[in-house]
TrEMBL record:
It comes from the Bacteria. Residues 389-599 form the ABC transporter domain. Residues 50-354 form the ABC transmembrane type-1 domain. It comes from Sphingomonas hankookensis. Keywords: ATP-binding, Membrane, Nucleotide-binding, Transmembrane, Transmembrane helix, Transport. Pfam families: ABC_membrane_2, ABC_tran. It is found in: Cell membrane. The chain crosses the membrane at residues 44-64, 85-104, 171-190, 308-330. It is a multi-pass membrane protein. CDD domains: ABCD_peroxisomal_ALDP. The keyword S-adenosyl-L-methionine does not apply. InterPro entries: AAA+_ATPase (IPR003593), ABC1_TM_dom (IPR011527), ABC1_TM_sf (IPR036640), ABC_transporter-like_ATP-bd (IPR003439), ABC_transporter-like_CS (IPR017871), ABC_transporter_sub-D (IPR050835), P-loop_NTPase (IPR027417). This is ABC transporter permease.
Length: 599
């Protein structure tokens, strides 16, 4: 039995207080990152990763050379050795050239890796989102908010290259690079730093490399405090993404329903709703600003202190003649570098926080994609000869589990034309969806003949973006059909005025009237000539003359077709041989007597 479904809003809030345990989220994040290395593009993935990894060592080497250069440079100044200046300048230019070349190559590879990784992930998520109609199920049950934005934006943010925004791989590489450089600078400091000497319980202790330990302690304390200060920021960022997504989808909704809103005189109401939605994003953005101030402050103090603190630690040794001026300045540089490298966490906390929220949203999408609810209605292919459709013990339920309609055992024979009737909200369209395998809630089974071409035509036809010809030919590609055939069909359905526009790319779904769209549906039916036609109020927007033309055309052009059609208009009964009427949640089948012999 399907579980009660929470409303979208409740789910969104639970999304903010992540219900999954940390291990599951880490596993999912790792799958997201490592999947690409096993994808068909694995050769490039590994090449790029290894090169970028190699560059982290290259960066450490350059920082080391720069540190040595500083030492030589300040020693030369202390000794007033002018002869050293030109060779030192040449060395500096060489180091800089190497550094720039490395940065450019790194950015190039990073950019390529970013777009290829994103391509792989986007395709993977599109496949999973659209597979077995999962995307419709997510919308039907409102399982998560804005899956489209998760695929378009969150995946982009996770895979982003340097320069655009900072993606997760970049952060990971920088963290690794920081460790490599950190170790390098710790070694420099160990060489020059005096030991920490103290006595405890009458024994004298000496710990070598005092500055290293001060720098490590400095980085650890800084990181811990930043993590504490940063927690509200991460939560505020997550909320911000939800609210921005809601605001955007609200705007899209208004845009799509512009005419209806205008006709209902509801422009002001919708305007206020947009304002409220934007206010939610705006007010939360204050929390983002305030919480980020704390982080920015912590990071600035950390940087400033890092350049001065080592001087106070080492100057006594310099005054005592224990180190040269060059050693002092190189020591300060090494301390600042070590603090900076170890404290990369401090610097990148905001970025890491953002990434965590992107990953959480993708994890929500993953759960929605993977955790398909129980399918109560079995859909199979294959029926007895001469039978097009059978249902056995079929009962439809609402997503929350309440009963909707009981169909029971029902068979449709080849060539029969069934009218589905019943009051509004009885479950007629839901039955059509169940026949298409798109309604899992309920029990029993549905089977369609597997050797027949079945076509479902809803009340509101889907017209793809593109040409009018593509709209008629859908789901075939327009190139598969002759222009002349499509033009003849348009004339047949009384849309002859559009024959010279079949190649025009327009928003046909918005432009054509509902009745014109239903005539496009007829053209599509006549083009595809299905064996079984399931119509859901497919003529509801047509006048009497066009409705007659619709049914007469189908009967005349595809005489053997089996038809199941949801109707409200009793006058349409004459086009049918049988009826399935829903009364008080029960379906009753009957043959229709045709006094005039029609049908
Ligand atoms: N995605 C959904 N989530 C929850 N309830 C739904 C969903 N889709 C349909 N329902 C409910 O199922 C019931 C039957 O809807 P359905 O569209 O099948 O009725 P109908 O008989 O075709 O009505 P009408 O004649 O007005 O088109 C309605 O009460 C509707 O609210």
């Amino acid at each position: 039995m399907p579980q009660p479904t929470q409303s979208g809003e409740v789910r969104r809030e639970t999304g903010l207080a992540p219900p999954q345990d940390a291990t599951a989220r880490w596993r999912d994040a790792w799958r997201l990152v490592s999947g690409y290395c096993r994808s068909p593009d694995w050769k490039f993935a590994w090449f790029a990763l290894i090169t970028l990894l190699f560059f982290q060592f290259g960066t450490a080497f350059i920082l080391l050379r720069t540190n040595q250069w500083q030492r030589q440079f300040f020693d030369a100044i202390e000794q007033r050795d002018q002869a050293q200046l030109v060779p030192l300048m040449i060395v500096f230019l060489a180091i800089m050239a190497m550094q720039v070349a490395m940065i450019l190559t790194e950015n190039l590879i990073d950019g390529l890796l970013s777009i290829r990784w994103r391509t792989y992930l986007t395709r993977d998520y599109l496949d999973r989102w659209m597979r077995r109609n999962r995307y419709a199920e997510i919308e039907r049950l409102r399982i998560i908010d804005n899956p489209d934005q998760r695929i378009a934006d969150d995946l982009n943010n996770i895979t982003a290259a340097v320069g655009m925004s900072v993606g997760v791989l970049h952060i990971a590489l920088r963290l690794l690079g920081s460790i490599v450089s950190g170790v390098t600078f710790a070694m420099i400091l160990l060489e020059t730093a005096p030991p920490i000497e103290f006595s405890l319980g009458g024994n004298a202790f000496s710990i070598p490399g005092s500055t290293v330990w001060y720098a490590v302690a400095y980085a650890l304390i800084g990181s811990y405090l930043t993590a504490k200060i940063g927690q509200p920021f991460v939560r505020a960022m997550m909320r911000q993404q939800h609210r921005e997504a809601d605001f955007r989808s609200g705007l899209i909704h208004v845009r799509r329903n512009a005419a209806q809103i205008g006709l209902a005189g509801a422009v002001a109401t919708e305007r206020q709703a947009m304002e409220r939605s934007f206010d939610a994003a705006r007010l939360n953005f204050r929390s983002v600003i305030y919480s980020s101030l704390g982080l920015t402050g912590a990071s600035s103090i950390y940087d400033r202190m890092g350049t001065v603190l080592p001087l106070f630690i080492m100057v006594p040794t310099y005054f005592a003649g224990g180190m040269s001026f060059g050693q002092l300045m190189a020591g300060r540089d090494a301390f600042a570098q070590l603090g900076m490298q170890l404290g990369y966490f401090v610097k990148s906390y905001q970025l890491i926080g953002q990434q965590v929220s992107y990953f959480n949203r993708i994890k929500g999408l993953d759960d929605a994609l993977d955790e398909a609810g129980p399918v109560g209605i079995a859909v199979g292919a294959g029926t007895a000869p001469g039978i097009v459709l059978t249902t056995q013990g079929l009962a439809l339920r609402r997503p929350h589990g309440e009963p909707m309609v009981t169909i029971g055992d029902w068979s449709v024979r080849t060539g029969e034309r069934w009218a589905l009737r019943g009051p509004s909200g009885a479950g007629k369209s839901t039955l059509v969806r169940a026949l298409a395998g798109l309604w899992p809630d309920g029990h029993g089974s549905v089977a369609l003949a597997n050797d027949r071409r079945v076509m479902f035509v809803p009340q509101r036809l889907y017209l793809p973006l593109g040409t009018l010809k593509a709209a008629v030919c859908f789901p075939d590609r327009p190139e598969e059909h002759d222009d002349g055939v499509v033009q003849a069909l348009l004339r047949r359905v009384r849309l002859g005025n559009l024959t010279d526009q079949i190649h025009a790319v327009r928003l046909w779904q918005e432009e054509l009237s509902p009745g014109e769209q239903q005539r496009i549906a007829l053209a599509r039916i006549l083009l595809h000539r299905p064996d079984v036609l399931v119509l859901d109020e497919a003529t509801s927007a047509l006048d009497a003359d066009n409705t007659r033309n619709f049914y007469d055309s189908v009967a005349g052009e595809i005489p053997g077709a089996t038809i199941i059609s949801v109707i409200h208009d009793e006058t349409l009964l004459k086009h049918h041989t049988h009826s399935l009427t829903i009364v008080d949640g029960q379906a009753q089948a009957a043959a229709i007597e045709q006094p005039t012999g029609h049908g």
